[in-house]
Amino acid sequence: MSLGRLLLTGAAGALGRQLRPRLRPRCSLLRVSDVAPMEAAQSGEEVVPAALEDRAAMLSLLEGIDAVVHLGGVSIEKAFDVVLQGNIVGVYNLYEAARKHGVKRIVFASSNHVTGYYRQDEVIDANAPVRPDGYYGVSKAFGENLSRFYFDRYGIETVCLRIGSSFPEPMDRRMLSTWLSYDDLERLVVASLTAPVAGHTIVYGMSDNKSTWWDNTPARHLGYRPQDSSEPFRAAKEAAQPRLDLNDPAAIYQGGSFVHKGPFED
Ligand code: NAI
Ligand code: 15L
């Protein structure tokens, strides 16, 4: 199934650089965008620089687009004013442009930090109330809520991916529970774009890890079936990292070290 005319934001970032070549052959057109420098356009691509907080640029960016994979924005905890521009003003600009151009579906890169203040000894699903662990998590919760509003009011479907930790391999003990391989990321994004009915869905972006804090049962209609697991990395990660200090909030809460970030000076 062709993904049609697809926009990929955040194309210069770590996950954007992974997804760009994987999505290109599936699209009739892949338009890639970022504020940071991007590789030159390949056949079947358009490269369009744009800042998310630039409303006019975003309106023109979405012209003629069928669906969006929205990875762009601030991807770690930062001062509120920085997060505000990229992740709150920016996501509003994206959805308004989508509404004006009749875009049908958006895959929104949310984050596990929307629920980072749940404990590592509990398993939650996407129906649990949000408990963000910082301004970054709050901004992703805003994106999830805004996308729900645009679905209820305007029928724009969104799949919010609460991505765990998507890296070449888990980097520490925590990521044994949160890891999402790049291949599974691709599977999840493609499933989100091609599910016959997506509505407004929130799904945790994780591989088939043996230990997990998240239950994706409410998103089974997407048809996402992870094929990788953090388990082959477990012995090495446990040997490399001494046992966790269970008085440390980073070892207690699912958000890990994000619970230590800030406050930031103005
Ligand atoms: P990244 O930081 O490598 O890429 C984000 C891209 O967005 C960058 O290329 C940056 O230039 C661009 N960007 C930032 N502010 C912008 C603005 N105002 N206007 C236009 N472009 C802007 O992040 P990464 O790892 O590739 O993550 C992609 C998305 O997935 C992010 O939204 C992040 O929050 C989310 N995510 C990633 C996780 C991971 O494990 N890599 C985990 C959870 C969520
Ligand atoms: C995120 O949301 C970040 O974008 C990423 O850099 C990782 O730190 C990830 O969460 C995580 O929780 O491991």
Q: What would you say this structure looks like, in words?
A:
This protein is of the alpha/beta class and 266 residues long. It has a single domain, classed as NAD(P)-binding Rossmann-like Domain (Rossmann fold, 3-Layer(aba) Sandwich), CATH 3.40.50.720. The chain is 33% helix and 15% strand. The strands form two sheets. The chain has a seven-stranded parallel beta sheet with strand order 3-2-1-4-5-7-8, with helices on both faces. The protein has a two-stranded parallel sheet with strand order 6-9. Helix 2 crosses helix 3 and helix 3 runs parallel beside helix 4. The radius of gyration is 18 Å and the shape is globular. The N and C termini lie far apart (49 Å). The structure holds 1,4-dihydronicotinamide adenine dinucleotide and D-galactaro-1,5-lactone (15L). 1,4-dihydronicotinamide adenine dinucleotide (NAI) binds next to helix 1, helix 3 and strand 5.
Strand fraction equals 15-25%
Spatial order of strands in the largest sheet: 3-2-1-4-5-7-8
When the domains are counted, the total is 1
Helix content: 25-40%
The biggest beta sheet, please? 7 strands, parallel
Q: Could you say which overall geometry the principal axes of the C-alpha atoms support?
A: globular
Assign the CATH architecture.
3-Layer(aba) Sandwich
**Run of helices and strands:** EHEEHEHEEHEHHEEHH
> How far apart, in Å, are the first and last alpha carbons?
49 Å
Global mean pLDDT = 97
